[in-house]
Each structure stands twice: as C-alpha cells, then as structure tokens.
Amino acid sequence: MPTDEPTDLPTDRSTDLPSGRSDLPELPDPAELVGLIGLFAEEKRVRAFAAVALGAENPTQVGERAGLSPKDTAGALRRLRDQGVIAEDAGRLGVAHQRFRELARAARPRTAATEDYGSQDERSETVLRTFVRDGRLVRLPSQWQRKLVVLRHIAERTFEPGVEYPERTVNEKLRAWCEDAPVDHVTLRRYLVDLHHLQRQDGFYWRPAATA
Length: 212
Description:
Blueprint: H1 31-39, H2 43-53, H3 59-66, H4 70-82, E1 86-89, E2 92-95, H5 97-107, H6 122-131, E3 132-133, E4 136-137, H7 144-158, E5 165-166, H8 167-177, H9 185-194, E6 199-201, E7 204-206
Antiparallel strand pairs: 1-2, 3-4, 5-7, 6-7
Helix pairs in contact: 2-3, 2-4, 3-4, 6-7, 8-9
C-alpha cells in the first residue's frame, strides 16, 4: 500500500463552514458538551448565535439583529468562534454545523459490546470503530493509512465480488454511507475506483475478486 496520499485522488469535501480549528479531534471529548452548555448559558452569546443562524453575515448585522453593543457583539462572537460553533468563510459568518454533528455523535450512548468489523486486525478494528458507526461513515480520516482501511471496508461491505452494478445503483449504495458524513458519494466512488476496489466500464462497476 502507498505510504503517501497521491495528489490526483479526490480530497474530502464538506458543505459546512469550517469550525475555525485546523485539526479537530477524531472524536470530541464528551466534556466539550459541558463547555457548550456553558457557552450558551450567557444571554448575549445566545442572541449573537441566533442572529448568525438567522442570516447575519458580519458583526454589524449581528449587533443590529441581536440588540447588542459593538463591544458585546465582539466579545460574544469571539467566544462562539473559540468554541468552534460559528466560523467565517469568504468574509461571511455562518454556523459550523459539522461541529454540532461531531458533538452529537460524542453524546450518543455507547453499547456495552464492542462491534466487530471482521477485519481480523485490532488496529484496523480501532480505526473502523472510530470512523464507521451503525453502517454509516462518520467521516473520512485525514491520515492516509486510516483512510485506506475505511475505504476497503466500505468496498467489501457494499459490493459483492464480480457482480456488475450500474452507476445509479453504485451511487445509491454509497449515498447511504454518507448520510451523516461531510463527504459525498461521488468522492467515495472516485476513491474506490482510483484504489482499484471498483473497476468500471461502459457505465457499470464491479469489485474484483481480490483487492489489495
């Protein structure tokens, strides 16, 4: 397997605004949920956040809609940015929805039994338990070797070897993996083809009998 990610493969894409952090943890610490409650325990921050959620795109608009002074607006927005619940993209403020999805996943109760993904390798099992939940992708890992583990798992659990699938069926199957993830089915499909987990010809796809 390659040790470095090829530059011609697709990169992860998210429709959400960035959370303002360069490297979020793979799984948020549940203690962060307590911090989130504290963040919204202060009325000015709640009003500022509501203004952003309702479409205010800059501090001036936030202050006007929330009824806050420039000083209070700046302080509230600073705390909201620090907690990663709002972000700025192309000069526009917006809610970092992906951050809330990550925190929601962290709050879900864990089952007592550890799910077995059938990889026969404890390191791979750890990766899959982190990035795959209930048959759905949490998100693609940024680390390349972990990404390879997840993509192979998706291919093996989704497509029978040697069976031809029309592109529409492939898209439907991969879209199910992406329901809660900041990556789309087209990106997954391209990864699987580029890594030879899927082959394609004349609009049909199939998984080889053995994939590396």
